[in-house]
């Protein structure tokens, strides 16, 4: 009985196509597509928030400048409260984004570079995916390239955070002169310049978010093409 079954089972096994690798590949692609969709959704939310932040700082800066020109110190003081709240929230946001960027490095199998370290330089084995050529789609980044890119993103987030903190600290150092009513033309000029820099920082953050959306949407399209 057993001797007759062995050849039959062997023949059945040899004649049955092995679908596991293909199924596993499809499942992996689906998982990556789902992650890419989540990233795109997060990017769109970030852009919406960044536009709101930019609009707010533009409005507050114009209010402060108008109060400055008209010599309305009470209005200046009210705007200063809102400016302080905006800057505080923005610093907290930038610090959170640095933590998120460091987490991305870890998730990719890397170790976040120490604070102050220079960003990694791409070299052999670290090539970034290039634009599609005439003979096919763009190659996917190697794991090393992906980690290196995450390290660069982390470095950029740290630089942006440190610059924002520097600007808000300078504003904080100036504020006692305005609170005491002892601010002269030079102090007003310095504060106006710093407020313009806050506006520039907010605009740069929006630009970065839009760039990330473009990149993540392109990655999503590449993954869908591989299904």
| Cα-to-Cα separation, first versus last residue | 46 Å
Radius of gyration over all CA atoms, rounded? 27 Å
Strand content: under 5%
Low-confidence stretches: 1-16, 122-133
**How many strand units?**
0
Please identify the structural class as seen in this structure: mainly alpha
Largest sheet: none
Oligomer: single chain
| Number of structural units classed as domains | 1
The tally of helices reads 5
SSE order, one letter for each helix or strand: HHHHH
Summarize model confidence as the mean pLDDT.
Answer: 83
Helix percentage = over 70%
Can you put this structure into words, describing what you see?
- The chain has 227 residues and is mostly helical.
- It has one domain (27-115, 142-225).
- 78% of the residues lie in helices and 0% in strands.
- The chain has 5 helices and no strands.
- Helix 2 (20-70) packs antiparallel against helix 5 (185-225) and helix 4 (143-179) runs antiparallel to helix 5.
- It is elongated.
- The chain starts with a helix and ends with a helix.
């Amino acid at each position: 009985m057993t001797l007759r079954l062995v050849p039959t089972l062997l023949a059945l096994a040899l004649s049955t196509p092995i679908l596991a690798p293909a199924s596993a590949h499809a499942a992996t692609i689906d998982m990556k597509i789902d992650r890419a969709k989540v990233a795109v959704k997060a990017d769109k939310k970030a852009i919406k928030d960044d536009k709101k932040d930019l609009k707010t700082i533009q409005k507050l800066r114009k209010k402060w400048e108008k109060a400055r020109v008209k010599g309305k110190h009470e209005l200046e003081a009210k705007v200063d409260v809102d400016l302080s709240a905006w800057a505080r929230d923005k610093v907290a946001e930038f610090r959170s984004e640095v933590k998120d960027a460091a987490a991305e490095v870890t998730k990719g199998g890397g170790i976040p570079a120490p604070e102050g370290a220079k960003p990694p330089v791409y070299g052999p084995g670290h090539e970034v995916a290039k634009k599609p050529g005439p003979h096919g789609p763009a190659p996917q980044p190697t794991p090393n390239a992906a980690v290196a890119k995450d390290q660069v993103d982390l470095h950029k987030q740290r630089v942006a955070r440190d610059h924002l903190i520097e600007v808000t600290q300078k504003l904080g150092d100036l504020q006692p002169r305005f609170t005491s009513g002892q601010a002269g033309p030079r102090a007003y000029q310095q504060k106006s310049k710093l407020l313009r820099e806050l506006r520039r920082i907010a605009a740069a953050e929006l630009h970065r978010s839009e760039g990330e959306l473009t990149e993540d949407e392109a990655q999503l399209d590449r993954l869908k093409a591989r299904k």
